[in-house]
Design a protein that fits this description.
By secondary structure, the chain is mostly helical. Helix content is 66%, strand content 0%. The protein has one domain.
C-alpha cells in the first residue's frame, strides 16, 4: 500500500480531512472510537439515501473505502495535529476544487 500526503493511504487522509476536522473535539478518541464515530456518521448519511438509485453500490463503496482507513493513525493525529492552519486551508481548497469537476 502506498502513502498519500504523508498518511498511510488516501482513505486515511480523506477520512481524517472530511470527518475528523475538529482536533479538539476528538482529541481523546482511540482508534476504536474513531472507527465507531465514522461508522455512525456513515449510517446517518446513508439513511438519507433512497434505496434503489445506486444505493447498494454507494453503500458498498463507502464500506470498502473505510476498510482501508488506518484508525490508529487518525487517533494519534488527533492528539498531535499534523497540519498547520495554512496546510489545512490549502488541503481543503484542493479538495473543494477537485469536487467541482
Amino acid at each position: 500500500m502506498s502513502t498519500y500526503n504523508g498518511w498511510a493511504n488516501y482513505a486515511t487522509w480523506r477520512v481524517r480531512l472530511e470527518i475528523f476536522d475538529d482536533d479538539e473535539f476528538f482529541e481523546d478518541y482511540t482508534a476504536q472510537d474513531c472507527k465507531e464515530y465514522c461508522d455512525g456518521y456513515l449510517d446517518g448519511w446513508m439513511d438519507t439515501l433512497s434505496p434503489g438509485s445506486g444505493y447498494n453500490l454507494i453503500v458498498g463503496f463507502a464500506i470498502a473505502f473505510t476498510d482501508d482507513v488506518n484508525w490508529r493513525e487518525i487517533a494519534e493525529s488527533l492528539r498531535s495535529p499534523r497540519w498547520s492552519d495554512e496546510e489545512k486551508a490549502t488541503t481543503i481548497a484542493f479538495v473543494k476544487e477537485r469536487l467541482k469537476d
